[in-house]
């Protein structure tokens, strides 16, 4: 009979070779021989999470915590499994173990040591005579998504100061949510706050439960009217159905969300449509593959910040995007948007993809098999044909 170490190595190879079913069987055999092997539970949990069997993933993570109660990384991944199955009541407290929360607090303690280190972290209390400083963490899309909670925070306290990434500053100044929007840097002796909190901790601090999590399901942001008019005059003076596309976001964390530009080619032949690229920075060179065959307008090269992006999106009839900040901006603006997800996708889209809980104007399409966008784009094509026919 094989020992548990040999079985574990075989399971690992199966998992790496995209054979999760066989890997699952082997990990279960490993645990029969070595019931407290946390690595086996961890790998099983990732298999179940990717399969959208989130309750089994939760059970595995909890088993690890029985053995190692202080494993903050496992607590974080446990929160994502709860979130994916829309159990925010259980997940929020574990989400406080996320690495970006810790790094954002450390960053602010370095920037404002005499303020942040002396002021407590805000925990949801009613404090109408107090000022709360909340600040960015994670990516641009996360900040746009979590901005929905700023008005709820403002209802509880006297003043809110919010510091977004510099690329988002102008957009948030145009949509201030009743907050003071801080620019790139403000000297410590010119500001004051009584509490501070990373923005992604707001749902937990505000004790939001159930459908309260999905407050303001889109349309809670708007574009700069003057900029929108400028974009309209320059790029949108035609009678065609205008579609913006984006195929790539930040690949540092997840290359699975990258869409090949060739996947869009089928859509470009649909009559009476005009396509616009909203791709910026990494991946923007791929537009040359499109230009070699189709007439497409490169909007992405005109974007200096997200205020520009919002103004351009304001003139589009539809946005088709990978899972990126553009999709969140489109949803926040209330613009009709099709989000294309890889086979293994992020927690925030949940297990029921028939509805987007965060944005009313967003519809979700997912890969049918790993690393193959054809099926998803066939569905998008049919959706577009039906939409245009109406």
Description:
The protein is flat. The strands form two sheets. A six-stranded parallel beta sheet has the order 7-6-5-8-9-10, sandwiched between helices. Strands 3-2-1-4 form a four-stranded parallel beta sheet. By secondary structure, the protein is α/β, with parallel strands linked by helices. It has three domains: 4-90, Serine Threonine Protein Phosphatase 5, Tetratricopeptide repeat (Alpha Horseshoe), CATH 1.25.40; 100-214, no CATH class; 225-389, Rossmann fold, CATH 3.40.50. The chain contains 18 helices and ten strands.
Draw up the topology in text.
Blueprint: H1 4-16, H2 20-33, H3 38-50, H4 54-67, H5 72-84, H6 88-95, H7 99-111, H8 113-116, E1 127-135, H9 140-146, H10 150-156, E2 157-163, H11 169-174, E3 180-181, E4 195-198, H12 202-205, H13 225-235, E5 241-246, H14 265-268, E6 273-277, H15 287-291, E7 297-298, H16 306-313, E8 318-322, H17 325-333, E9 337-341, E10 362-366, H18 374-389
